[in-house]
Write a structure and sequence with these properties.
By secondary structure, this protein is an alpha/beta fold. The chain has 17 helices and 16 strands. The structure holds adenosine-5'-diphosphate, aspartic acid and magnesium ion.
Length: 476
């Protein structure tokens, strides 16, 4: 069971989360808990480190002071009737550690990704200590586990990848004996360590990933991700308030959804569970009685064509063209190889042989790096006019419409682009993979919310879903 930031955001929330674990432990479930930092704590640590990085001593002091107050308040409310001493000492030691790291950054004038990774998971550390104490308070035997002891990774600081063999070994040495002794391990999410013992993080929002990595390493029966919504919804409810919770979806659908920034699942979290066919539940810790969403390998084919719609709101389109008669496929080959080496995520690409052009839609944050890489790679071709100057279209949004039921269903693209045309939005680029699982298109970022709502209205509003269900019933 993994609890996200809002599910452990206050003393009351931690108590509620711990009572969910307590309840299930009483039903003889063997549970491993993974926790995020208290809501917004990682953001605060990032701000404090940035202040240190830019030499802003006062910013560091203010940030540390606020973090201390926040945790002191939670501790006071959470542990009012138990001896506070050991918990308070541990929490204070973690905050002192953060202060020391900030002093080092202030002194050196720069924070390397490795130093950042030493500081970033301190919020998870404190949260896991508090959660363990709360479980103890409820009478459930629990033990704090430092993620560095169990989750082995490579040394890609800030975006580390798991070393599954070593993680499996650590889990059997550290976690299995605890579980066998009816003790619930409470593991810090978001982080791990290299074989050399350096702390690493798995990327922002990475506690979901920690949970599925540990579940795969332990051959768990299920992963339960507790968050602040009723499961995976047909769209982000902050954008489409009428979005509905999906009872189930496939791993493939969840991978697509998370890749295109539906925050409810970390973009890498599904794969470890998918590889070992471990069902993943997304559940609401605020409403544990709600059924939630079950993510599984396969589903019956009688579902509606479109399952959900999501958006990457900060993207850009890079276009490479030539008017010379050259073999453009060679250009593609060299370019994609380089992008692979640079670990760039391509949201989607479009290619037109007749125009000899290639469009790449990327996250905005990657754009400048990719343009520089293209300019280096094709220096000679650009210099001699074999390739035209790289065209960059910033501030686009990618809308992703997905559902395995779209495969073989006629008319989806027609309905989709009709809905977009009705609100007078022009489509900048479009792609649909051969799996027909996902249709992606780019629009002006300023219109993204409107487009998302229009697409949701067309395929996923209660009325649209009713019509869909009626026609499915007629067919069967
Ligand atoms: P946690 O702190 O529990 O990890 P997150 O904030 O990372 O939670 O993710 C939950 C949030 O994801 C929800 O509050 C919701 O606003 C957002 N979200 C975006 N897309 C979706 C979607 N399709 N279904 C459910 N939630 C979504
Ligand atoms: N606390 C980390 C973050 O905010 C990891 C997580 O919450 O999943 O990114
Ligand atoms: Mg999250």
């Amino acid at each position: 069971m993994k609890f996200g930031g809002t599910s452990v955001g206050s003393a009351e929330r931690i108590r509620q989360a711990a009572s969910i674990v307590h309840l299930h432990a009483q039903h003889e479930h063997k549970i491993v808990v993974v926790v995020s930092a208290l809501a917004q704590v990682t953001d605060s640590i990032v701000h404090i480190l940035n202040a240190a990085n830019s030499g802003n001593k006062q910013g560091v002091e203010d940030g540390l002071e606020q973090l201390l107050k926040r945790h002191q308040q939670v501790m006071a409310e959470l542990l009012y009737d138990m001896p506070l001493q050991s918990v308070a000492v541990t929490v204070m030691a973690d905050l002192t550690r953060l202060r020391e790291l900030c002093s080092a950054v202030l002194l050196l004038g720069s924070a390397t990704p490795q130093v950042m990774d030493m500081a970033l998971p301190l919020g998870e550390r404190i949260s896991a200590v508090l959660f363990t104490a709360c479980l103890d308070q409820l009478g459930t035997d629990a033990a704090f586990v430092d993620s560095a002891r169990v989750l082995a990774t490579d040394d890609k600081f800030g975006d580390a990848n798991p070393d599954m063999d070593s993680t499996r070994q650590h889990c059997s040495e550290v976690l299995l004996p605890m579980i066998a002794g009816h003790r619930i391990p409470v593991v810090m999410g978001y982080s791990g360590s290299t074989t050399a013992g350096q702390v690493t993080t798995l990327g922002r929002g990475g506690s979901d990933y920690s949970a599925t990595i540990l579940a795969a390493a332990l051959d768990a029966d299920e992963v339960w991700i507790w968050t602040d919504v009723d499961g995976v919804l047909t769209a982000d409810p902050r954008i489409c308030p009428e979005a509905l919770s999906l009872p189930q979806m496939t791993f493939a659908e969840a991978v697509e959804l998370s890749y295109y920034d539906a925050k409810v699942i970390h973009r890498k979290a599904i794969r470890p569970a998918m590889q070992r066919c471990i069902p993943v539940w997304i559940k609401n810790s605020f409403r544990p009685e709600a059924p939630g969403t079950k993510i599984v390998e396969q589903l019956p084919a009688n579902e509606g064509p479109v399952k959900a719609v999501t958006a990457v709101t900060q993207a850009s389109l890079i276009t490479l063209t030539t008017h010379r008669d050259i073999h453009f496929a060679e250009i593609f080959g060299r370019l994609f190889l380089r992008l692979g080496h640079e670990h760039v995520d391509i949201l989607f690409s479009t290619q037109s042989s007749s125009e000899n052009s290639l469009g790449l839609v990327l996250r905005q944050a990657d754009t400048d790096r990719v343009v520089r890489a293209i300019q280096r790679l094709f220096r000679t071709e650009l210099k001699h006019g074999v390739l035209n100057p790289v065209a960059v279209h910033k501030n686009v949004a990618v809308i992703a419409v997905l559902g395995s039921g779209m495969k073989g269903t006629c008319g989806i693209l027609g309905r989709l682009f009709d809905a977009v045309a009705r609100i007078n939005v022009s489509v900048i680029a479009v792609a649909q993979g051969a799996s027909e699982l996902n249709i992606c298109f780019a629009v002006d970022a300023r219109r993204a919310t409107e487009v998302l709502r229009a697409v949701h209205q067309e395929f996923l509003s209660p009325a649209a879903r009713k019509t869909e269900a009626q026609s499915a019933a007629r067919v069967s």
